[in-house]
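Encode chain A's predicted structure.
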Amino acid sequence: MPSMPEPREAEVLYARHAYDFANTAESVGLARQAVRQTLSTWDCAEDVIETALLITSELAANAVMHALSSPIFTVLCALRQGTLTLGIADQDARLPRRVDFAADDDHGRGIFMVEALAANWGFEICPDGKMVFARLSAAIAPAKATAAALSGG
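Encoded structure for chain A:
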């Protein structure tokens, strides 16, 4: 399993979760449910959760559409002081790229949406594929963050 890329500065890791899903269209909704449950448990703000769900949908859908040789994708969530990192790892070495699209195209906007929603995003090459990640600002009360870390949540 890939590791989560480190944020800009050394921050305390409060909580981390990873989930594996079959690389199918049905798994995109399951990934959203898992992320919602995790972020709710961590007591993230509803606006952060909603943005995280949009990003999860886009990145998971990209894995399903483009990582055809990958039997699974992994959703990673990591909460650090002030930062929520979401990652989708798959077993396809092809890197994400922006594509030109017309106004009436059904596809092609995913990376643009992630870029617009996230504080920053990127990708990391892993031994058996890649992970595309996005970071959001996510304030969390220190007591709640400590409780999340201690509970493994």
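Strands lie at 13-22, 72-80, 82-90, 120-126, 129-138.
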